[in-house]
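Page 47, continued from p. 46.
Same chain as before, 142 aa.
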Amino acid sequence: MKSIILLTLSTLFSAVAFAQTSSPAGPTKVDEKVNLVAAKTEVASAKAEVTTSKTNLTAAESELAAAQATLDAAIAQKADKVTIAAAKANLATAKEDVKAARKNIKVAREVRLTAKEEVKDIKKEIRQTKHDMVKHHATRVR
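Result:
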C-alpha cells in the first residue's frame, strides 16, 4: 500500500513537472509591453540626443567662424605676435570642437539606429511568442 501511494505521488509530481516544462514559459504580456515602451523611450531619447548634437555642431561652427574672423582681423590690423598666436590657438580649439561635434552626431545616430533595431527585435519576439503560444495551444487541443 505504501509503495502504491509513493508511486502515485511520484507520477503526480512528474506530471506537474512535465506540464511546467512543456508549456512555453515566455515573458508575459505586461513584460513585453514594458520592454517595448522602454525601447521606444530609448529611441525618443536618442532622437533628442541627435538634435542636441546637431545644435552643438551649429554652435561650434559659429565659434569657428568667429575665431577665423578674429584671426583675420588681427592679421589685417597687424597686431602683435602674442595676439595673433592667441587667435590661432582659438581657431585650432574651435576646429577641434567642430570635429568633436561631428563625431557626437555620428555616435548619436548610431545609438538611435541601435535603439530602433531593438524595438524591431522586441516586436518580432512578441509576434514569435504569440505564434508559439497559438501553435502550442493547437497542439494541446488535438
